[in-house]
Amino acid sequence: MDYRQQIIEGIAIGIIIVAIAIILFVMKGQIPNDYPETSTDINVDELQTGDIVSVSYRNHLGIFISFWSSSTWSHPGMIYKRSDKEIFVIEACRYDKEWRGVIVIPIDKWIEFNKKNILALTKISGPRICNDILENALSNIVTYRLQRFVLNLTRFFWV
User: Fold this and answer.
1) Residue 157 has pLDDT above 60, yes or no
2) Average pLDDT for residues 143-151, to the nearest whole number?
3) Taking the alpha carbons of 10, 12, 15, 19 in that order, is the dihedral positive or negative?
4) Of the candidates 67, 71, 44, 70, which has an alpha carbon nearest to the alpha carbon of residue 56?
């Protein structure tokens, strides 16, 4: 990549960052301030396969997701209780290099990642979910990777 192309791409990235900041500032005023004040206490002993746990992020990305989805909750996951001692959350996420993609994460690790955010629990109300069916579905999806946003703006300037 030559020097001129790097400068143009840097300026373009700067303009996009400023535009995103302005959009987030405007969006924050359009999102109702209905965030819960406290987290739901999640009693691990009462969790069942199929329960839904949700996270509400108060950062800029959480605000964007709330605006886009018209929901307070930015990030849901489903409980998978393999046994009384083995409880997991199934979700698509990017916590760090180890925990990204469609994952099955231990509940204690999930709580650790999300402890600074607002958490909620919705108990399953329908029939119980059979672990065999869930494990079969998991074997099909855990190999999926989340797509990454790749920014290459120079193609817009060089025709």
Assistant:
1) no
2) 56
3) negative
4) 71
Q: Over pLDDT 90: what percentage of the chain?
A: 14
Burial (0-12, 13-18, 19+ Cβ within 10 Å), 51? buried
How does DSSP classify residue 32?
Answer: -
State the sign of the Cα–Cα–Cα–Cα dihedral 133, 134, 138, 141: positive
For residues 101-140, one letter each, b for 16 or more C-beta atoms within 10 angstroms of the residue's C-beta and e for the rest, the string is: ebbbbebeebbeebeebbbbbeeeeeeebeeeebeeebee
Higher pLDDT, 128 or 155: 128
CB atoms within 10 A of CB 80: 23
Q: Is the pTM of this model over 0.85?
A: no
**CB-based contacts of 107: which residues, under 8 Å, 6+ apart?**
42, 44, 47, 79, 87, 88, 89
